[in-house]
């Protein structure tokens, strides 16, 4: 009977092989030194993915499991077809007591591609698809900094100028939905700070932050905005976890990545305003 140490070694190796075979699709989201092992399989740039798990006893006594999956509403039929294909493949592999990651990833991608047109409405011969007529440009201009890597973890800052609280969340959604890579980040922590003018003319300072699972990271970003007295800006720091714990050093990286883009976007904006004021005089 296979012991747990050997089982864990087989499971970790299985995920690493899948990650090497599908570098753009497979994202390991946790350490590989203890069960359960988890990873994500990204299916497109629009946020469709499956969260998968290898439980204790894998692969001889338990099979690959789907934790959750997500897609845009229009792709519900496609993602359901993918989930069904993965479950069937995982069951087949379990019955043979063999590793399932590679087979399930291949089955998922194949099912996703085969179901590409299931949710698309039919187009008449005399009708031109709207997508060929209209291309929606991004509504917000994000500035992304240079990625910083330390012991296989990568950090990258992003900043965007905003005027209202609604714009903050719209901008963040557009940033994440518009990038397959950012969607796959282990954390997308953020903070924002702005002065909003109410209908009655009053000026109200608003601010908030979110850790996205990286405890206390959001508050550190908020502190940075406060100390710099930045206004009308949202800053996001993405972290892709490299399966090596960095300790407190990670907060220095998060702060430095945020400061880099804030200096560029906010200070550049202030300099531009000063030049405009001089021209008016």
From TrEMBL:
Any single Gene Ontology cellular-component annotation: cytoplasm
Pfam families, per the entry: Impact_N
Domain of life according to the entry: Eukaryota
Coiled coil residues, start to end: none
Gene3D superfamilies: Impact, N-terminal domain (3.30.230.30)
Annotated Impact N-terminal domain residues: 151-262
GO biological process: GCN2-mediated signaling; regulation of translational initiation
Database matches in InterPro entries: Impact, Impact_N, Impact_N_sf, Ribosomal_Su5_D2-typ_SF
Family from the record: Belongs to the IMPACT family.
Protein's UniProt name: Impact N-terminal domain-containing protein
């Amino acid at each position: 009977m296979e012991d747990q140490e050997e089982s864990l070694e087989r499971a970790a190796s299985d995920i690493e092989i899948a990650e090497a075979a599908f570098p753009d699709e497979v994202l390991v989201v946790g350490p590989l030194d203890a069960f359960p092992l988890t990873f994500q399989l990204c299916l497109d740039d629009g946020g469709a993915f499956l969260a998968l798990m290898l439980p204790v006893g894998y692969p001889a006594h338990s099979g690959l499991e789907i934790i959750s999956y997500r897609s845009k509403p229009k792709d519900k039929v496609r993602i359901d077809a993918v989930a069904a294909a993965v479950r069937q493949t995982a069951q087949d592999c379990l019955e043979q007591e063999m590793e399932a990651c590679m087979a399930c990833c291949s089955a998922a991608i194949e099912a996703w591609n085969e179901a590409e047109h299931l949710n698309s409405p039919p187009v008449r011969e005399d009708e031109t698809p709207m997508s060929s007529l209209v291309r929606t440009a991004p509504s917000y201009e994000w500035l992304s900094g240079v990625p910083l890597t330390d012991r296989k973890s990568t950090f990258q800052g992003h900043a965007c100028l905003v005027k209202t609280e609604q714009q903050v969340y719209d901008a963040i959604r557009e940033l994440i939905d518009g990038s397959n890579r950012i969607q796959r980040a282990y954390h997308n922590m953020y903070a924002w700070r702005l002065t909003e003018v109410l209908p009655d003319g009053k000026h109200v300072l608003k601010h908030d932050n979110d850790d996205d699972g990286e405890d206390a990271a959001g508050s550190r970003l908020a502190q940075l905005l406060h100390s710099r007295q930045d206004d009308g800006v949202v800053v996001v720091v993405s972290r892709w976890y490299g399966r090596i714990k960095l300790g407190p050093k990670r907060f220095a990286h998060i702060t430095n990545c945020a400061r880099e883009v804030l200096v560029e976007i906010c200070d550049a904006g202030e300099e531009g305003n000063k030049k405009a004021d001089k021209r008016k005089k």
